[in-house]
Amino acid sequence: MNDKAAIHFEGARVVYPNGAVGLAGIDLTIKPGEFVVVVGSSGAGKSTLLRSVNGLTPLTSGRITVGGQPVPKQEGRELRRLRAGVGMIFQDFRITRRLSVMTNVLVGRVAHVPGWRAMLNLWPAADREIAFKALERVSIADKAWVRAGDLSGGQQQRVGIARALAQEPAIILADEPVASLDPVTTHQIMRDLVRINQDLGITTLVNLHFLDLARRYGQRIIGLKAGELVYDGTADSVTGEDFKNIYGRDPDAGDVLDASVAS
Amino acid sequence: MSEVSDAPPTRPLRPARNWALIIGAVGAVTLMTWWSARGIGFSVVELACNLPGGRRLLVESWPPDWSFFPRLLAPLLETLQIAVIGTVIGGILAIPIAVLAARNLTPGFLVWFVDRNFMNILRTLPDLFWAMLFAAAVGFGPIAGALALTVFTIAVISKLWSESLEAIDMAVPEAVRAAGGSWLAMLQFGAIPQALPHYVSYALYAFELNVRASMILGLVGAGGIGMVLETQRSTFEYPRVTLIVLSVLVLVLIIEQISESIRRRLV
Ligand SMILES: Nc1ncnc2c1ncn2[C@@H]1O[C@H](COP(=O)(O)OP(=O)(O)OP(=O)(O)O)[C@@H](O)[C@H]1O
Ligand SMILES: [Mg+2]
């Protein structure tokens, strides 16, 4: 646990060019090694929160520091260095289907090797080793040389996780990582994320749609509503009343993953 | 279901045809054709009177002079070589030009603007112009032809491929940037793989065009089979001209078959 893995939000505010408010001034501290689940209804600002940490969505005012360093507001070397230490996992996997699983995972090393080496596919042995270790950690090392597009959805998301791990990141941001997966795969992926957090101490922020998943896997739960922080507490202490407050309505069957599969 | 059969809704009436527009358009085209034909002295009557001349030309051109074939091999090969050089060099140079011209990938407006206009200029000027330009610069011969086709290839591929690049899904390139990747890494691992089949397809297409074009380029002295065609035509050796046209036709058909089978394998 090092403080490279801490995140501070100070009056973090995002207003999109069309006037939509993504974040309405958030103050928040994420401690190193925490596993934080972010919940909120559609449009609450969950994605914006995550994307502001690695500068994919720049703040319009306020500031965010990652490991004490402010997140640069412009693309460039500084921002790339910060991103190198922050892995991101997406709902739609975002791997290059045409390339091999291995190449996709090595993308997690691009910021760590000289540009010409990546360009010519001449990855140092040490980086190949890191990529293989990452694949082993999500149990798909046997697929290393398969075309990524030929894998199942769950396997493709594992490639996405392995790519993030290959960065040897201090922080992992996962934006609804299980929203395109079936219930069984969902639990496998969530367990992978928790295990990685526990084994490697990587600070993890996960956006989730389902309340039961949030309660089950989160240590700490953060609730967003219209860009504001409306809940911040432990997963054990969160109540139905809290969820009602976050969602602005009573939770219904659509807000939980099929409970019968959860074991 | 029952509601539909019980009470048929009033169906909208077919709108009346806009006759004024149709008559106007047909009239305008007719008028323009008549005006143009008059301008260039095009007359069907005169054409009919000249038909015997055309028939005589056809009769004189047949059968092809097969004995001339051995002397065609070297120029045919040269044509092919001109097309290969033009396609390969032009194909490589087209890559950065296409990338910079793609709105979603270009690093800045100024680069995009300059590159776009550069592309437009290349495309506006015909291949014959480039052949004459390079012939003046490096002398008549195959080098001038290859250079002209290089420019022609850049023009063809960069335009088509930059449009393919603009149509890619930007989600994966964003993921590469999120991993700390540079602009080049974003291109290499996120953007270009998506549009690679298009690139190969356009390069093959450019090669087909180049084989055909290198025949025309020969007419202005840029090497290859076109130069032979021009000398035989100017000395009225029509059976030989027929043979040349036939052999180019066969060459083009073979190349189209090969590139078509490669293209099928890509998809
Ligand atoms: N690129 C964008 N341009 C304009 N407005 C945007 C953009 N991205 C998000 N917004 C707006 O910002 C607000 C927050 O969006 P955000 O995507 O962060 O919500 P979310 O909680 O992730 O929602 P979901 O659960 O649907 O993914 C919404 O009102 C949304 O319409
Ligand atoms: Mg979202």
Largest sheet of chain A: 6 strands, mixed
Please state the structural category of chain A: alpha/beta
Average per-residue pLDDT of chain A, rounded, comes to 92
Mass-distribution shape of chain B:
extended
Residue stretches of chain B low in confidence (pLDDT < 50, at least 5 long) are: none
Mind describing the biggest β-sheet of chain B?
A: none
Textual characterization of the structure:
The complex is a heterodimer of chains A (263) and B (267). Chain A is built from nine helices and ten strands. By secondary structure, chain A is of the alpha/beta class. Chain A has two domains: 1-85 and 169-263, Rossmann fold (3-Layer(aba) Sandwich); 91-168, no CATH class. A six-stranded mixed beta sheet of chain A has the order 6-7-8-3-9-10, sandwiched between helices. In chain A, α5 (125-137) packs across α6 and α6 runs parallel beside α7 (183-200). The model of chain A has no long low-confidence stretch (mean pLDDT 92). With 267 residues, chain B is an all-alpha fold. Chain B has two domains: 20-61; 66-266, MetI-like fold. Chain B has helices spanning 2-6, 19-40, 44-49, 51-60, 70-101, 109-124, 127-138, 142-166, 171-178, 183-219, 225-234, 238-266. Chain B starts with a helix and ends with a helix. The mean pLDDT of chain B is 87. The A-B interface holds A 54, 56, 75, 80-88, 90, 92, 94-96, 98-99, 103-104, 107-108, 110-112, 115, 118-119, 160, 163-164, 167 and B 171-172, 174-182, 184-185, 188-190, 193-194, 196. Residues 16, 18, 20, 22, 40, 42-48 of chain A line the site of adenosine-5'-triphosphate (ATP). Residues 16, 18, 20, 22, 40, 42-48 of chain A line the site of adenosine-5'-triphosphate.
Features:
heterodimer, A: 263 residues, alpha/beta, Rossmann fold, 2 domains, 6-stranded mixed β-sheet, 4-stranded antiparallel β-sheet, 9 helices, 10 strands, B: 267 residues, mainly alpha, MetI-like fold, 12 helices, extended, binds adenosine-5'-triphosphate, binds magnesium ion
